[in-house]
Amino acid sequence: MIRIRLGMVGGGRGSFIGGVHRIAARMDGLYDVVAGVFSSDAERNKASAEDIGVEASRAYDSIEAMIEAERARADAIEAVVIATPNHLHFEAAKACLEAGLHVICDKPVTATLEDALELEKIVGRTGRHFFLTHNYTGYPMVRQMRDMIAAGELGELRTFHAEYVQDWLTEPMEQRGAKGAEWRTDPSKSGAGGSIGDIGTHAYNLAGFVLDRRPSHLLADLSSFVSGRRLDDNASILLRYEGGLKGTMWVSQVAVGNENHFTFRIYGSKGGLEWEQEDPNRLWFTQYGEPKQLLTRGGAQATYGNTQSIRIPAGHPEGFLEAFANLYRDAAAVLRSGETDRRLPLPGMKEGVQGLAFVDACVRSSSSNGAWVELIG
Amino acid sequence: MIRIRLGMVGGGRGSFIGGVHRIAARMDGLYDVVAGVFSSDAERNKASAEDIGVEASRAYDSIEAMIEAERARADAIEAVVIATPNHLHFEAAKACLEAGLHVICDKPVTATLEDALELEKIVGRTGRHFFLTHNYTGYPMVRQMRDMIAAGELGELRTFHAEYVQDWLTEPMEQRGAKGAEWRTDPSKSGAGGSIGDIGTHAYNLAGFVLDRRPSHLLADLSSFVSGRRLDDNASILLRYEGGLKGTMWVSQVAVGNENHFTFRIYGSKGGLEWEQEDPNRLWFTQYGEPKQLLTRGGAQATYGNTQSIRIPAGHPEGFLEAFANLYRDAAAVLRSGETDRRLPLPGMKEGVQGLAFVDACVRSSSSNGAWVELIG
Amino acid sequence: MIRIRLGMVGGGRGSFIGGVHRIAARMDGLYDVVAGVFSSDAERNKASAEDIGVEASRAYDSIEAMIEAERARADAIEAVVIATPNHLHFEAAKACLEAGLHVICDKPVTATLEDALELEKIVGRTGRHFFLTHNYTGYPMVRQMRDMIAAGELGELRTFHAEYVQDWLTEPMEQRGAKGAEWRTDPSKSGAGGSIGDIGTHAYNLAGFVLDRRPSHLLADLSSFVSGRRLDDNASILLRYEGGLKGTMWVSQVAVGNENHFTFRIYGSKGGLEWEQEDPNRLWFTQYGEPKQLLTRGGAQATYGNTQSIRIPAGHPEGFLEAFANLYRDAAAVLRSGETDRRLPLPGMKEGVQGLAFVDACVRSSSSNGAWVELIG
Amino acid sequence: MIRIRLGMVGGGRGSFIGGVHRIAARMDGLYDVVAGVFSSDAERNKASAEDIGVEASRAYDSIEAMIEAERARADAIEAVVIATPNHLHFEAAKACLEAGLHVICDKPVTATLEDALELEKIVGRTGRHFFLTHNYTGYPMVRQMRDMIAAGELGELRTFHAEYVQDWLTEPMEQRGAKGAEWRTDPSKSGAGGSIGDIGTHAYNLAGFVLDRRPSHLLADLSSFVSGRRLDDNASILLRYEGGLKGTMWVSQVAVGNENHFTFRIYGSKGGLEWEQEDPNRLWFTQYGEPKQLLTRGGAQATYGNTQSIRIPAGHPEGFLEAFANLYRDAAAVLRSGETDRRLPLPGMKEGVQGLAFVDACVRSSSSNGAWVELIG
After folding, report:
1. Residue B234 sits in the same domain as residue B166
2. Which pLDDT score, from 0 to 100, does residue A1 have?
3. What's the complex ipTM?
4. Which among B19, B50, D178, D321 is placed 20 to 30 Å from C318, CA to CA?
5. pLDDT at residue A89 above 80?
6. Sign of CA dihedral C165, C171, C172, C174
7. Cβ distance of B28 and C28 shorter than 8 Å
8. How buried is residue A287: exposed, middle or buried, by Cβ count under 10 Å (0-12/13-18/19+)?
9. What parts of chain D have a pLDDT lower than 50?
10. Largest alpha-carbon pair distance within chain D?
11. In chain C, pLDDT over 90 holds for what percent of residues?
């Protein structure tokens, strides 16, 4: 396959997620990053291009300049990766889509629900592909959960419990010059959600992916435990679904001792599944009345979503980067063939809107002292 | 020490908890069960006495008969153990207290908050000791959590997450003749709480013990997932405390794959603690910015509450029965000396009232569609 | 059942194992400790009796005195528990057996193989019951391993790996006044084996119990890592069995970070089993080509040996003391009925001899620079 | 940095390890695979080139052809990756080295010790760089173990225990057409070692890397449990070092229930370290008398070797491929700068010889019925 040529917006030196996108793009040899607007700072932009191996002439000052210049080339970029802080996603995506480029965008899709709904229209109108890197859905065992639930192995779904808790904002890092902490706790850059936007949307998206349904109502109790913090750093959320399914979600960035503790546990009338991101190659499955089973990446009783999402045999751990790369690999197939594998759906614009609707509902609920609210959008 | 002579109410053949009380009483050689009303069924009562090694003449038909006959003996019972279904606790405890006997009572203390408040008065009036077997507070590592929090090792408390989930009521066992399931799902015997009364009160009590504080408000979303079940079998509960501490609690008896999964995790401005009942000899402690530490029963950096609550060295697992027996051992010291070790407080009548107030608040909240309510009592 | 009356030899104040025997004896209400020679020190003997609740008149100065005085009583002791350092087992056991008493003896059975062989004859001649408290065989999941292997669930056995490693002798505790360390590292009290006698015999016995076979040859490499230590504190042992089974064993008391890490893993042509003493309620079972299963104490697919060895439901951890008490409970049945449950064999004199033969072979091998030697006895 | 141009020998369609090398080479954007002899089968060679994105004209029929043709190009390959079965390594490496190419070779370096010693001379003579992909030394926590031991944090080293056990050869897969099983159990392709060559050399190399020393003597008991198998599938190995350090190693490919269970545990007079490949982001560290600590990839108290070997923050699991890619990344630095970072030594020719010397000694020992032998080479 001829590699897909990518341009990049954001993600230059100092960005954690920019490097992740590039590794994910490179891992299977399906993409080349050949151009970009890596930073609004000219020096940093240039240096980043050099780091990455992009020709100096293709490190552009602005998205407009990139679009303009690339349009003229035979080897022009075909798609862009957007890896800026949240508030810049909308304009970047809009410009690229309207220029006919496909978009791979980091989450959350935009800073506000309004922007997300507007962007959804633009995606529809332009007909371009739009991928949202809710990377945790790339994990083989997460895909196996989805497959098993779809196959009815849990019976009627009853309740799930999702946790996404970290501790890196236990102290006011944003007041100590940590860039990543600064914009993530700044409403003008992140939007209305703090931890719920940064990591809660991941948990919410993973639940939607695994369960293949979305709640009708939720209730959220948001906290900002660190003095002076402007956005939430901890959230307890209850979710209700049509048909009786209920969920709870706990999101925190102040849970001392948790590096990136993201777990999903789901129970039905016939069985239960339990998964943990820090031990991602394993999945616990219990059929009611039977011993608990340890299912593994590429192991016995692997489903389609599992076997299609691995590179190396069971027992050889794959991790975060491989899961992220699975989205890139699957997106490459879509970009080349135009068709999505229905059994491996990729998060996109719809999931982006849902994520913002989740943040919006959490904020509305919490400002009503933790009342039940309906999800919009 | 001369052994304390116990009478027993309930807990005969077929009772899980009756046997537990007896093992706990025997373990340290501090008690003898010498009399009882083990069952309302005469045959079963007699057979139970024989099983236990109680003389046939001291297997009584009723509490009144036991009180009457024992009063006349030089070697009369000094205290009673109440191990009946919940709705029978009140009358049994009342009669015994008024007869001058100390009481060791299984939880929840009564079936209703009204009864609990009434019983609290009787305890006060009679001046007898009243112990409530919230046995999980007997675990050495639970006591270490309390000690460490009291010593300020977590800094200012922010949020905790408690889970007590099982799966033994995943199917309608109460419709299949399982005695334990029958009364636990029958409001006339259990009171208004199902899972929240049976196991939620344990989680709530443990939180109170470890944190040394009680919430002012809570919100509960109760479910009965099994068709025809009259009480809750799953609950999501949010708790708010004066001073900003918040907690979440998840209680379930339909979480397939969980035998007796009871965990407590608490986070403050300086550190975090994480404990799990199915692995009770271990406690995870993280000081912010430092590696996670594994604290063990009787191991390095054990606190007073830990070292006072063990029988054998680190690495030799103690379990549920030893934790239960710790309450008995500590109660024996109180019964003989009249004084409680302030560093090892035992659950009693006050905690009983708090437990029923918790059930009451959960039910009120849930019937108001999961609204915030104040705790009473 | 009328309680069995026990005398005790050793196990007074300051002894770890004495207390363990008493808790195990009391747990199920089947025994009473009513007499003893708890210490060779008269004061300590008296004080120990008081601690334990034995009448002062039955705290004897010597075994002979105990035998003499008890013989005259209607309520004489029926059996003795021997809980002294190893080198005193032989004389105590001999005297008691010849006086017609049954014996419950701590391991290893004697300090030398010669003594063990001699004692075996005495047991045979007197016809008394002799129980050896290799307590780890009392764990329900260990018994389940034995059952499953006997039922052929692993196919043809190929290899096992046993580890029993601790760290409490990492430093020269015996030179710092620690009693338990002193006699355990003193050849005149322990015999020729240090760690191999103290804990290696447990691992060896457990292997024999689970596999129902004994090796023909072994090779041992013993070390004394701590300067000045007179007995081994670390051992690597290879074992060969008739029919091709091979085993490895690693024993250590200087493995820093291991409290009482005792594991047993066994593999055959069809499956594998893995168990760990510090997490004793679980057993991992894999059928070749299938997902690993988590079997639990009292859980799904429990075998006879599992279900007969529990007191409380799955998920409520039982530990070291309950496993120890299982030997006492099963021994009580034998003492009262005269018959052993063939499905729950108890370690006795034969296992005692085997344990000493193991120590003897390890020492012979190691003194020949780690050569293969045949087991004797 | 300009990417290093690689040719590849072996590793075409159907090869597990070929794909691993390519992912590792691509991950950090430091290499391009531009040529190769991917298979001796012409069709498969061509198809493999197409899969990989190598121009058809650079998919050569033989190593000689590749050397010849590439020599003429301005963009010629600079190094080769050798990923064939073991017995083909020697000729391939020799030819490439003599043609002035650097070599990245899969392990074990050759099929025989003689070949390894001969190749060592060729490396010396040609002055080319030679990297051996003992990839487990690329794990951050393995590097941290090395750093901590070098810094004396364990005190004087006493004993280690290494396990590398799998189960994929439990049944005679080599008789059922599994290619990977065929050559690995065929002495003419693998050399004299079965499991000890395939995975034992990894364990042995990791021990050497972490401990920075090699044993003087070893003793091995090799087994072939599967009927008809010509090489060992299970091995127990004892190791002795100058100065008193001892090690044990257990290697198996028939341990049912183990996917790729590779652990390393090392104990000294002051502390212990424990690491497991299937949970590679964690390392357990105990200082004698202190609680066990959980050290993590990129976490608190990370050493140089840890922090230099990561791409993403703690809590975001990295795995086997990232560890493998660390060797490629470090090798790229050497290839470009000519200098190795002394703190991050890469396995090379010397380690290759040591690995074969290990296999040779194991086989010699085992054929002498498990006698102690000296290591040669």
Report:
1. yes
2. 66
3. 0.96
4. B50
5. yes
6. negative
7. no
8. middle
9. none
10. 65
11. 96
Give the closest-approach CA distance of A85 to chain B in angstroms. 26
CA geometry: angle D262, D264, D265, nearest 5 deg: 145
| pLDDT reported for residue B1 | 66
Contacts of residue A53 in chain D, CB cutoff 8 Å? 1, 3, 29
Min Cα–Cα distance to chain D from A110, Å: 24
**What does DSSP say about strands B130-132 and B102-105: parallel, antiparallel, or unpaired?**
parallel
What proportion of chain B, given as a percentage, has pLDDT over 90?
A: 96
Asked whether residue C155 is assigned to any structural domain, the reply reads yes
| Interchain pair A254, B158: CB under 8 A | yes
Check whether A131 has a pLDDT greater than 80. yes
Cα–Cα distance, C357 to C220 (Å, whole number)? 13
Same domain, B161 and B229: yes
On chain B, the residues whose CB falls within 8 A of the CB of D301 are 290-291
D129 vs A105, D122, D150, D208, CA distance in Å? Answer: 41, 11, 26, 20
A52-62, pLDDT tens digit by residue?
999 999 999 99
Helix axis angle for A140-150 and A320-337, nearest 10°, is 70
CA distance B35 to B73: 12
**Minimum Cα–Cα distance from A52: chain D residue:** D29
Instruction: Locate all alpha helices (DSSP H) within chain B, ordered by sequence.
Output: 16-27, 42-52, 63-71, 89-98, 113-126, 140-150, 179-184, 187-190, 195, 201-211, 304-307, 320-337, 349-367
What's chain B's average pLDDT?
A: 97
Instruction: Express as a percent the part of chain A with pLDDT over 90.
Output: 96
What is the per-residue pLDDT across B225-262, written as a single tens digit (0 to 9) for each? 999 999 999 999 999 999 999 999 999 999 999 999 99
Task: Provide the pLDDT confidence category of residue B14 given band limits of 50, 70 and 90.
Answer: confident
User: In degrees, to the nearest 5, what angle opens at C-alpha B9 toward C-alphas B4 and B13?
Assistant: 105
* Residue B326 is assigned to a structural domain of this protein: no
Q: Do residue A209 and residue A229 come from a single domain? A: yes
Facing D372 at nearest CB: one of C171, C236, C370 = C370
In a domain, C324, yes or no: no
Contact between residue C307 and residue C298 where contact means Cβ atoms under 8 Å apart? yes
What's the rounded Cα separation, in Å, for the pair D201 and D220? 13
Could you tell me if residue D294 is inside a domain? no
Q: What is the mean pLDDT of residues B90-103?
A: 98
D253 vs C269: CA distance, rounded Å: 12
Q: Say which of C236, C286, C371 has its CB closest to residue D256.
A: C286
The last residue of a domain, from among A135, A156, A188? A135
Report the percent of chain D where pLDDT is more than 90. Answer: 96
Residues D264 and D117 reside in one and the same domain: no
Q: Which two tokens stand for residue A123?
A: 């995606």
Q: Residue D35 sits in a domain of what CATH number?
A: 3.40.50.720
Number of structural domains chain C divides into: 2
Same domain, A118 and A261: no
- Reported as a pLDDT band with limits 50, 70 and 90, residue C338 is confident
Nearest CB among A23, A280, A316 relative to D311 is that of A23
Cβ contacts (< 8 Å) between D248 and chain C: which residues?
236, 248, 250
Model pLDDT for residues B43-72, shown as the tens digit of each residue: 999 999 999 999 999 999 999 999 999 999
Instruction: Pick the last residue of a domain from D133, D168, D199.
Output: D133
Amino acid at B41: D
A207, A162 Cβ separation under 8 angstroms: yes
In terms of residue numbers, what domain contains A49? 4-135
> Is B99 in the same domain as B211?
no
Whether residue C36 is found in the same domain as residue C83: yes
Strand partners, A295: A283
C149, C128: one domain: no
User: Of C179, C200, C178, C36, whose CA–CA distance to C108 is shortest?
Assistant: C200
Number of alpha carbons in the 13 Å side-chain half-sphere of residue B155: 19
Cross-chain Cβ contact A272/B288 below 8 Å: no
pLDDT at res. C2: 86
